[in-house]
């Protein structure tokens, strides 16, 4: 089966396939391709339940795999690295046939991945690339650099410097903007911040955007574990240290809805949100329901919607391919170098959601109902 498959492939894909085999993880299909789905278990390791997107991801992957008859071992690690390591170890010893992992710390699972490779268990990195290991067989995610570009663009639109169609807006500036990035141990953070900063750079260079705190390095603006409280505290500190002279914050680059809510709370506590002191433009990511309500109410500017249902589909497709002794279909074989190798990836498109797109992107697609948007809460 493997030989027939390889012969049928073109040169580049062949090299890719061989590279994946030499990684050791892929290729256990020889053992699994004859088995029935009911005899196969997929271990799904998710980082945390504090963010509703990972709950949605976990549920979607589980439901879709179970609908195909597979057994699923779904675990959440409470954002604790040793817990995630232990859970993955256990999945391996209990005989998982494929692992789907959204890592808390992208560099902390090398030991587990080696054990998986030794047991010929293919590993799929889910949304967050696992770094520093040759034993990552596939990556499913969105175009993370484009997420950053969308966030930078959303901020410019919120400030009135650009229109949604990309044309020049009527606002002149200069505007005071503060920057936030995600967790530095998450490989995506660099892509989000890089894409956003590349987009904002011409405006910073022209003096239209000023970062009053002067905190512009990713290390200065990062938010460990993406935590809302950490972001709220940093925004409070920024207001005290850099805006106690009467200056106003006009915009905040935020990489994730939870962080955006922390930022907005700090601003509201400091008196922002009235006609005299308008809330700044604030970006986000993940289309979390609490933030969709804020966007609908005109409090948050926008979010980047990444359809977790489509991501789950790709994780299921990749799992099935490995179980059938095939290579999953990649649409990017260049971008995601994990420090040891370029991991073949399937990247999905993203959608920027301002208030006007809530209906078309989220309600009409069945991601959230109109009632959930109005309530700002997911129905169980
Ligand atoms: C990132 C992910 C984002 C967001 C963030 C915080 O890895 O790509 O969509 O969910 O984690 O959970």
Characterization of the model:
The protein is of the alpha/beta class. It has helices at residues 2-8, 11-22, 29-32, 52-67, 81-93, 110-118, 144-159, 187-205, 218-221, 228-242, 257-269, 289-296, 308-323, 358-363, 370-375, and strands spanning 41-46, 71-76, 98-101, 123-126, 138-142, 175-179, 209-210, 251-253, 281-282, 303-305, 345-348, 351-353. The strands form three sheets. It has a six-stranded parallel beta sheet, sandwiched between helices. The longest helix is centred in the middle third of the chain and has 19 residues, at 187-205. The chain is elongated, with a radius of gyration of 22 Å.
In a nutshell, what does this entry contain?
The protein is about 45% helix and about 10% strand. The protein has helices spanning about 1-10, 10-20, 30, 50-65, 80-95, 110-120, 145-160, 185-205, 220, 230-240, 255-270, 290-295, 310-325, 360-365, 370-375, and strands spanning about 40-45, 70-75, 100, 125, 140, 175-180, 210, 250-255, 280, 305, 345-350, 350-355. Residues about 1-30 have low confidence and may be disordered.
